[in-house]
Amino acid sequence: MRGPTAARLFPLSDRGGEYLSGEFIDYLKENGILSQWTPPGTPQLKRVAEKRNRTLLDMVRSMMSFMKLPTSFWGHALEMAVKLLNIAPSKSVPQTPYEIWHGKPASYKYLRVWGSPAYVKRLVGDMLDSRSSLCRFIGYPKETAGYYFYDPTEQKVFVSRNAVFLEKGFLSDNRRDEVLIEESSKEPPHDSTASFEPTVHIDGVPVLRRSTRESRVPERYGFVGLTSQLDNDPKTYREAMSDRFGQVT
After folding, report:
1. Where, by residue number, does the polypeptide cross the bilayer (predicted)?
2. Ranges of each domain in the chain
3. What span, in angstroms and rounded, lies between the C-alpha atoms of 225 and 205?
4. Residue 33: strand, helix, or coil
């Protein structure tokens, strides 16, 4: 939005404490900047800023969840997201924000995957200690050239330029884990109707009940059993003296 003389631009912001502080208001007065604040509960009046804030929040959430770093590194992730958006082309303007501000195109040679592992050379240590340590890349320092690294063993953040990044292997391993998770989550469909047979009750039909009484053979069949036993007796003297009937019962 332009001022009354159409010669200056003045910011439109909400009523947050960072915009209503005495230091910020004094800074605006010293530099001749006019400011305007939106009414409470009207984020639609600054939809461009709200949309950009949502984009940054989505980027930070995605970076933190993918790299599995502690939530205390959300500030480093936010700085990385802002840096990427400032050097990324946009449809709204023909130039990137970095090119508009610095007057030259941005360089993309130094970009690294945020959160990727890297072997960083140690500057001091004993002669028998390892010459490098496995750390995680978390950003770019503003005061000096190099990279920000996090050492999970010592739990320290430091700046270094001597590092070997393991981006390709790290991304391929994460992609392989995602494929395994997707394959394990795919289970064959289970037909519940095939193993379930409902019981049908028909009115008027008595339910069969098994008797618990002991079953006995009728007496009229006793003669058959006695006859079968008598048929086994030897018929001749030779049969009686043979091996089959030699034993005296």
Report:
1. none
2. 1-41, 44-111, 117-184
3. 41
4. coil
Residues counted in the chain = 249
Asked whether the beta carbons of 122 and 129 are under 8 A apart, the reply is: yes
Q: Is the dihedral of CA 31, 34, 39, 44 positive or negative?
A: negative
DSSP 8-state class, residue 121: E
* 156-160 vs 163-165, strand pairing mode: unpaired
- 239/245 Cα distance (integer angstroms): 6
203-237 pLDDT tens trace: 555 555 666 666 665 655 555 555 555 556 667 77
Helices (H) and strands (E) in the chain, counts: 8, 7
Q: What is the C-alpha to C-alpha distance for residues 41 and 46, in angstroms, rounded to an integer?
A: 11
For 66, residues 6+ apart whose C-beta sits below 8 A from its C-beta are: 115, 174
The SS3 of residue 109 is coil
- The first and second tokens of residue 46, run together, are 């600054």
Residue with tokens 């070997």: 164
pLDDT, tens only, 176-211 = 555 555 555 555 555 545 555 555 555 555 555 666
Task: Pull the structure tokens for residue 51.
Answer: 């949309």
Q: Which residues contact 85 (CB under 8 A, 6 or more apart)?
A: 52, 55, 56, 59, 97
Q: What proportions of the chain, in percent to the nearest 5, are helix, strand and coil?
A: 40, 15, 50
What average pLDDT is seen over the chain? 76
225 contacts 219 by C-beta, under 8 angstroms: no
As given in the structure block, the two tokens for residue 157 are 């953040």
